[in-house]
Amino acid sequence: MQRQDREFIYRQVIEAISRDDALALDQFLAEGLMDHNPIPGQSPGRTGFKDWMASARTSFPDLRGTVETVLVTDNDYVIGRVTWYGTQHGSFAGLPPTHKAVALAVIHIVRFEAEVIVEWWGVAHIFGAATGR
Fold first, then answer.
1. What's the CATH number of domain 3-131, 3.10.450.50, 1.10.8.10, 2.60.120.10, 3.30.70.120?
2. Measuring CA to CA, how many Å separate 6 from each of 2, 83, 105?
3. Cα 26–Cα 54–Cα 85 angle in degrees, nearest 5
4. What is the distance between the alpha carbons of residues 98 and 101, in angstroms, rounded to a whole number?
5. Among 28, 68, 69, 101, which residue carries the largest CB count within 10 Å?
6. pTM for this structure?
């Protein structure tokens, strides 16, 4: 698999989340995906990733991501920096809805096998979330 193919797939996952298109994730994420930063109660595998997406969309119905930076390594990893934008209409990380716009910076590390993502790490800069946009 070429480096640009891994970047393309990563960007497609972010786009699918932004479109609220859980079915599109089936072609990009392994069924047994290992999510190293699951939300409490998240199911394992690709199903769990879709659970996260549904939860995020409950909190931020207009959730959309902008890929800021992508680094592709020589050994099947992609590192991405994404800013997620949305308006908080549901509880998030134990905080009640604010009904304000939020921008949340996230770093992802994903590992590929063949042409699918098999591992996903995501670290959000929650305390640096900008509101009022």
1. 3.10.450.50
2. 7, 19, 21
3. 100
4. 8
5. 28
6. 0.92
Taking CA 126 as the corner, what is the angle to CA 69 and CA 101, rounded to the nearest 5 degrees? 85
Q: Which two tokens stand for residue 52?
A: 């996260």
Q: How far is CA 60 from CA 52, 65, 121, in A?
A: 12, 12, 21
Q: Which of 58, 66, 56 is nearest to 126 (CA)?
A: 56
Other beta carbons within 10 Å of 118: 16
Residue 123, SS3 per DSSP: strand
Nearest residue to 73 (alpha-carbon basis) of 117, 110, 100: 110
CB atoms within 10 A of CB 108: 22
